[in-house]
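Title: Prediction job returns without error message
Component: structure pipeline
Severity: low
Priority: P3
Assignee: unassigned

Description:
Job completed but the reporter wants confirmation the result is attached to the right record. Sequence as submitted:
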Amino acid sequence: MEEYEKLKQLVEAAAEDVAKAEGGNKAAGTRVRKMMQDIKAASQDVRKKILEVRSADSP
């Protein structure tokens, strides 16, 4: 599923900045918060797609 792959890529992309933010890098923390918003939207897209698939399978 394309939406899920996008979500995984976003999470992987945030990993480095999360480590930097834990080290006290404030700019990295800002980037992580922005990425979390993107991840939230991508998660919602996955949720919608799953519901579409489920609805399509139901008679």
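Comment from assignee: result matches the submitted record. Helices lie at 2-22, 26-57.
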